[in-house]
Amino acid sequence: LAEEGVLDELGVELIGAPVDVIRRAEDRELFRDTVLAAGLRVPESVIVTSPADLPGNLSFPVILRPAFTLGGHGGGTAHAPAELAALLERALHESPVGQVLVEESLHGWDEFELEVMRDRSDNVVIVCSIENLDPMGVHTGDSVTVAPQMTLSDEAYQELRNAAAAIIRAVGVETGGANIQFARERDTGELRVIEMNPRVSRSSALASKATGYPIAKVAAKLAL
After folding, report:
1. Could you give the count of Cα atoms lying within 13 Å of 131 in the half-sphere of its Cβ?
2. What pLDDT digit, counting tens, does each position of 93-131 carry?
3. What pLDDT digit, counting tens, does each position of 59-89 carry?
4. Residue 221 contacts by C-beta under 8 Å, 6 or more apart in sequence?
5. Cα–Cα nearest to 107, from 65, 79, 74
6. In 3-state terms, what secondary structure has residue 222?
């Protein structure tokens, strides 16, 4: 609607997460660049808009993440070139902008999510931590999760908190909630930023119920 000029024509203002913020979070390439600029690490990856963009030296398995889709729709894990070709065709079709992130698999790493709130005065709070009992390789929407996280040391949890605050500031979510997903290698403590929802999500609903913190209500009040 914004790109078609409809919002300007009708005098509609987006509050909480303007168009450029949504784009920075949902566009895989912009999000990767934003995270790297914030001094954090992401999985090794390549942006693909057609099969010709695929490098010839891919190490399998690889993860496919279409841009601007919800709940992992159109994504998947490819273990061989033939499987990759079929999954990529579907992923490109499902992405409304025809863009897919093909990234290294962090299969077996621990997966954590942080529910984050920010206001226009740049106050940031971590509402809730969520631990996926299933490791990386099971889509977070299909995983059994527990809130709050149970296995991180105080120092490791603080590292995730600092990273989440840096990301929500770098992306520029002005008000309200965001869900940020991390992968962590248990033995080495290596951390990778997986993705971000710049909005109240299904994880937000879980976090609200688990903590009693009314994320959607607070997000709406902050935006107003």
Report:
1. 13
2. 999 999 998 998 898 999 999 999 999 899 999 999 999
3. 899 999 898 887 778 888 999 999 999 999 9
4. none
5. 79
6. helix
Residues forming beta bridges with residue 46, ordered by sequence position: 102
Residues pairing with 152 in the sheet: none
In angstroms, rounded to a whole number, what is the distance separating the alpha carbons of residues 133 and 217? 28
Nearest to 25 by CA among 68, 61, 65: 68
DSSP code of residue 140: G
Q: Assess whether pLDDT exceeds 80 at residue 140.
A: no
Other Cβ atoms less than 10 A from the Cβ of 198: the count is 24
Question: What span, in angstroms and rounded, lies between the C-alpha atoms of 48 and 64?
Answer: 10
26: closest CA among 67, 83, 86, 57?
A: 67
**What crossing angle do the helices spanning 28-37 and 154-171 adopt, rounded to 10°?**
120
Predicted model pTM: 0.86
Nearest to 28 by CA among 123, 96, 107, 112: 96
Residues 6+ positions from 121 with CB-CB distance below 8 Å: none
What is the rounded distance in angstroms from the CA atom of residue 86 to the CA atom of residue 105?
A: 18
